Amino acid sequence: MKQDRTLINKAITLPATSPLLKNDFIFGVATASFQIEGAADSRLDTIWDTFCATPGKIRDGSDGKTACEHVSHWEEDLRLIRSMGVDAYRFSVSWARVIHADGSVNQQGLDFYIALLDRLNEYAIKPFVTLYHWDLPQYLEDQGGWLNRETAYKFRDYADRVSRAFGDRVHSYATLNEPFCSAYLGYEAGIHAPGHKSRAYGKQAAHHLLLAHGLAMEVLERNAPEALNGIVLNFSPCYPESDSAEDIEAANMADEYFNHWYLQPLLEQRYPDVLEKLPRSEHPPVMPGDMAIIGHKLDYIGINYYTRERYQASASELFEKLEHEQQPLTDMGWEVFPQGLTDLLLDYHQRYLLPPVYITENGAAMVDKLVDGKVDDPERLAYLQSHLQAVDDAAMQGVDVRGYFAWSLMDNFEWAEGYLKRFGIVYVDYESQQRIIKSSGYAYRDFLLQKAEQGAGKQQAGAR
Ligand code: FCB
């Protein structure tokens, strides 16, 4: 771990009255198992191992076998996290590391996470544990994966075993990370594992994922009643290309298809109206009682935000998505559009009875260069600053936002993009496995240290 204060040339700031500066607003960093852990030999294969081994699926032909070698570097990584002054660390458990194919517990795998949790608690860093960040054990995919209703019950059993073993060590559980990506990208568009391409499959997978979530919520409520239990969804708000009624209608349908498809069942126990526009063969396989399970009360909802999308009417489809062209774009080719985060938070706040919100991922891939042992990333810093300001705007207008996590703690395996895209506020030199804090990481740290100092000052003043 390298620390160099000379890199601090720009700062993250928020207005003094910002709700984000309150003592109990949580700031953190986030990662996910497959993207950082490596140590593939000590777990079962997952759908991502299979996908990576399929030629042409990963842009640089890479895989997650070693990644950031977090399993052997975890102690150093936790010291790094602590040095950044965060309140919380969001990470995910690899199902394939903790449960054997016969359903029994892999104690060695569980012990890894228990040691991690104990260390986080010792450091007074709140553990936010995601149970499923896309890495389905391959043996379950061989039985149909998320197309098989049984997988939802297997997930419940996994959640049960893990939450019993973790006891009271966990501050917050998220059942799933971004079921949209698992279902749509994995089973409908085919660009993520397991790589199926079928509209009917997409809806089937989505329904079973949502059911898995609901079943796991029942288990978590019993096993971890003190934890904040919820789910993490990703949203890209949908904007019409013009003011025409057709474009507005297209954007609304896209919004229902990509965003509300996941949120509305959770909060209102029903799929959005766009469902009626789909042929029966593409309807989700809802069984009696499912929607009540899916609609289990949430302690919070995690929202991941990166960019927005623009739509126009289409002659043959429900909507047509437009390419990102408005500058600035990130290295992913995603438009930098902080207003979208404010808009979506306000929109959902008005439409639904939202539970408390945590921004569980937000960040940007940029072309980072290691020069003389340093990485200066002013664009990422500007991205973080503008999006924190966007969260502040929404909070000032009444949205109950309680936390913000930067994606990501460190550069890692970016799914279909392999190691080509760097999202970290810490740079990873994959050859040496050295971690180097980028200038955005220093700015985040300084912002948090200053916030903590001011918070302590306020508390002292209050005590007098
Ligand atoms: C999100 C994923 C996360 C990461 C970021 C860039 O969709 O949850 O793992 O890949 O995108």
From TrEMBL:
NCBIfam families: BGL (TIGR03356)
Keyword Hydrolase on entry: yes
Annotated TM spans: none
Active site: 361 (nucleophile)
PANTHER family: GLYCOSYL HYDROLASE, LP05116P
E.C. number: 3.2.1.21
Name used for this protein in its record: Beta-glucosidase
